[in-house]
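Here is a complete protein record:
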Amino acid sequence: MDQVLSSVRNGCRLLKIFLDSPKELGVTELSKKLQLSKGAVHKLLSTLESEGFIRQNEKTKQYTLGYTLLELGTKVLTNHDIVDFSKPFLDQLVSRTNELAVLCVQDSKDAIYVAKEDSLHPVRFTVESFRRFPLYSTSAARVLLAYQPEEFQDEILQEHPLKSYTPHSYTSVEEIKEDLVTIRKRGYEISSNRRNTGVTGIAAPIFDSTGHVTASVSVIGPSDRVMPKQEEILQETLATVRAMSAQLGYRMS
């Protein structure tokens, strides 16, 4: 056990050297800084490289940090206090649309509303926070699913029979997959009556610094109020997710 913990510790020490060092380092320099043999350092580098934490420059044969670390760092940023991060954006979105605004994230094979700001209308639609539901079942959830690999989409849609919520719910995998393609092409989802009769949701994705979709924002309300203002609400929703994505480090190509 001591040997395993020592190896992990040395791997962590190696990675932290790059915090205050040049972009690339060779085995000899790392060996000196770690006070380990070149053979031991080479084994550490090979192990870290196999997991994406380190990568080797094919031209210089030196090593630099791998993209897995960037993904982990982004994950920390996006998961840390995500409710607090989203609150001012959701507040502003509600003030501009006068409808419920929610933040939806994916957790394994489910979707969860982790933050919401309610409409001030006396007649309004509301949701229950932190309740799990299928990734195909709402506009916000389908936005998350749309940006997943096709293999994962197939797994989600074929693992269990599709659940119908209203007479307008999707009844086949093919219908949902067509919708997922459309969402990804245009960058948003507008859906009425599929989860709740008389309710419309307008949702769009939030991207992190690596270009991955980390969450979605949806504006939800009674269809008779939302549909006449569909374009206005859509533009406000898109502006909100663009601002949130920018703060998370996403840059449009």
